[in-house]
Design goal:
mainly beta; four-stranded antiparallel β-sheet; about 10% helix; elongated; disordered N terminus
């Protein structure tokens, strides 16, 4: 029991110590902050008091006796050039009063004298005097003011002081006195109300405000004027006046001098003259042009100008010497399209022409879209005539005109046509390309949009032989127009006329399997198709490939060449076939040789009609023109290689259902009999299957050119 109590006491003491430490630590920290002014720029203080009071006293006077207030900054830090911002704001009960501040600057206010903080909180870091004026009605105590000071970074912050300024600090304004013009006879008397900020005037006791200006006295001998302060100001000085006018009929009438006459000095030399519209005679004075060109104004009897003057002479100014620069209008030539649109800048003395803001010499230039032309006079000249022109060049259609040409190429997958079209006009045009077959059916249609001189092409490929017509039409507003060009062609290689079909037959036309051949295929050049430009790389010599132990008779469709030879169609080719083995009693035949010939042509076109180019051979390799594609020397790509076989040893003719079966042939070798017959037959079958597999997998395979 005692042990437990001791533990409880110790635990309670520890908890009490922790609580006390948490309470005392903030107090110690606050004390340290208040005594470390050098590390906090906002740790100082501000004081307000009457100007002239000793600032070192660090006193504060919340109620001023005058309109000026001195603001002192104490104990901020020992850093020089520390900035603050000072502002004054009206407080209740005079919160609506405006404050006018003069004297020291409100921002920036430099505080910090570079000294360490003084003893007893009397380190003065800055002192500034401000004079305050107020608009609006004061309270009984005067005007209630809040002073706000914002200290800059680092460690900045704000401080406030509230004080009272006396009611006598209300802003004052002095009214400007009105004036009069007291001339002979009351009908000419006037008075003038001045324009004074924060002051209004009223005349002869009227409740209406009299705006600033000059008014007739209307024959009155006097006019009373009273001034009133507005905008919260009070008047300082005289506020009312009585304006008296004399009524003498025996005095000279005084009139103001008229405005000086003006001169007209148009461009040209020595042609300056008076502007007669700038002067005219009145009841009080007349004008006279003197022999020397000067102009004199003279009063009539009983009238004089100020200072008892009766006349005034004006002399003609000197001619300015500026020459005339008449403009000549630029011209434009807006043809169809834009290619030949032009504008012409003329030659004009003393004139500079600007085209779209750029000074441009005289000459003819290409025009497009909108062209803005301005004119300015050179130094010493004055512009006469127009100074601005704006030309718009249209892009209207010209009469359609086209240049077209047709090229054709033979590929493994058909005959390819490329129809080139060039816009031969000066405007943008649309053309329609149409391909029709022999029955008039459209098999290809496309529209090309071409700028002046621009070229484009339409392409088409067919694998159906026949007669086709290529046409080019104008195409405007979504409709087919007139026929501009047409060409009819007959295909030559829409179907494959190059790839040989080779058949091995006996003298009766029956397929003859089992015969063996050595076949050599030679082609001229290493030719590659360029699908982008549809051109060919130039060939380089002959290359040959030899195939051995070829059983042509086993290809019922005659397609050994297509399946096994890597070849390029429509290039110079020779195929040499040598029979090396004939089955049974058949006789070895051959050899056979076939050549693909092509016709050499001149490179110049044979058809000189505009737009028709037929020599697309590229020297005859791989593609051809309409009339000069090559051919096999036997005239066909179907080859029958015939062997002479004794009766019964050639190929097997398929049985004709309509023909009675013939007698069985005589067997020249008896079949094997006895116990080993079955084994021999089985071994022969295995050997045959092995031979067939070896032949199949060892045959060269054709790689089709893509």
């Amino acid at each position: 029991m005692r042990t437990n109590l001791s533990r409880r006491v110790r635990a309670g003491l520890i908890a009490f110590a922790l609580v006390v430490s948490q309470v005392l630590m903030p107090v110690q920290s606050a004390y340290a902050s208040n005594n470390n002014n050098n590390n906090n720029n906002n740790s100082g203080d501000i004081k307000v008091h009457e100007p002239g009071t000793d600032s070192e006293l660090n006193n504060n006077d919340p109620k001023l006796s005058g309109c000026s207030v001195q603001v002192d900054f104490y104990n901020f830090n020992n850093t020089t050039d520390k900035n603050a911002t000072v502002s004054f704001t009206s407080q209740a009960p005079t919160a609506s009063a405006g404050i006018l501040v003069s004297g020291a600057s409100l921002t920036p206010v430099v505080i910090g004298d570079g000294d360490a903080d003084g003893q007893g909180n009397n380190d003065l870091d800055g002192s500034y005097i401000y004079t305050l004026g107020f608009t609006g009605t004061p309270a009984a105590q005067g005007y209630h003011v809040d002073l706000d000071v914002v200290v800059g970074s680092p460690n900045g912050g704000s401080k406030q002081k509230v004080f009272w300024a006396p009611a006598s600090c209300r802003a004052k304004v002095a009214a400007t006195a009105p004036s009069i013009s007291d001339l002979c006879e009351v009908k000419n008397d006037t008075y003038t109300i001045p324009a004074t900020p924060h002051v209004i005037y009223k005349v002869n006791g009227s409740s209406s405000i009299k705006p600033a200006g000059t008014y007739s006295a209307n024959g009155a001998s006097s006019v009373s004027v009273q001034a009133f302060a507005i905008d919260g100001y009070v008047l300082d000085g005289q506020a009312s006046w009585t304006l008296n006018f004399t009524n003498s009929a025996n005095c000279e009438k005084v009139v103001d001098l008229p405005e000086p006459p003006t001169a007209i000095d148009e461009c040209g030399l020595d042609n300056i003259r008076w502007n007669t519209a700038s002067y005219h005679d009145t009841d009080d004075y007349t004008w006279t042009v003197n022999q020397d060109g000067s102009l004199t104004v003279t009063t009539v009897v009983g009238v004089e100008f100020p200072n008892e003057q009766t006349s005034k002479t004006y002399y003609l100014p000197k001619d300015n010497g500026i020459k005339c620069a008449p403009t000549t209008d630029p011209t434009k030539n807006d043809t169809c399209g834009t290619k030949n649109d032009t504008y012409t800048i003329p030659e004009a003395e003393g004139v500079v022409y600007y085209v779209n803001g750029v000074a441009t010499e005289a000459g003819t230039y290409n025009g497009y879209g909108f062209v803005k032309i301005t004119a300015e006079a050179q130094e010493g000249y004055k512009l006469l005539g127009h100074d601005y022109w704006k030309f718009h060049f249209s892009d209207r259609y010209c009469k359609p005109d086209v240049k077209a040409w047709l090229k054709t190429f033979c590929y493994g997958d058909g005959q390819y046509f490329k129809l080139g079209v060039k816009n031969n006009t000066d405007s943008k045009q649309k053309y329609e390309i149409v391909v029709t077959d022999s029955e008039g059916n459209e098999v290809k249609q496309s529209v090309v949009y071409l700028h002046s001189g621009q070229y484009d092409a339409g392409s088409w490929m067919t694998n159906v032989d026949g007669e086709y017509t290529f046409s080019v039409y104008s195409y405007n507003y979504g409709k087919r127009g007139e026929l501009l060009w047409e060409k009819m062609v007959v295909t030559e290689c829409a179907t494959d006329v190059f790839t040989p079909d080779i058949y091995k037959r006996d003298q009766n036309g029956n397929l003859l399997p089992g015969a063996k051949f050595t076949i050599e295929v030679c082609q001229y050049g290493n030719i590659v198709r360029d699908d982008v430009r549809l051109n060919m790389v130039a060939p380089e010599g002959w290359s040959c490939t030899t195939y051995t132990d070829v059983d042509l008779g086993s290809y019922a469709n005659g397609d050994w060449f297509e399946q096994n030879v890597e070849y390029k169609p429509y290039v110079p080719t020779t195929v040499t076939i040598t029979e090396t083995y004939a089955p049974g009693t058949c006789e070895i035949s051959g050899p056979w040789k076939f050549s693909w010939n092509y016709n050499q042509r001149e490179e110049e076109p044979v058809d000189e009609q505009p737009g028709v180019i037929l020599n697309s051979l590229n020297k005859g390799y791989y593609h051809h023109d309409m009339n000069n594609m090559g051919s096999w020397d036997n005239g066909s790509n179907v080859w029958d290689l015939e062997n002479n076989c004794p009766p019964g040893n050639g190929g097997v003719t398929p049985e004709d259902p309509a023909t009675p079966a013939s007698e069985a042939p005589v067997v020249t070798e008896l079949p094997q009999t006895g116990p080993g017959g079955t084994i021999t037959t089985f071994l022969a079958l295995v050997a045959a299957l092995g031979t067939y597999g070896a032949v199949y997998f060892l045959q060269p395979k054709k790689r089709y050119e893509q």
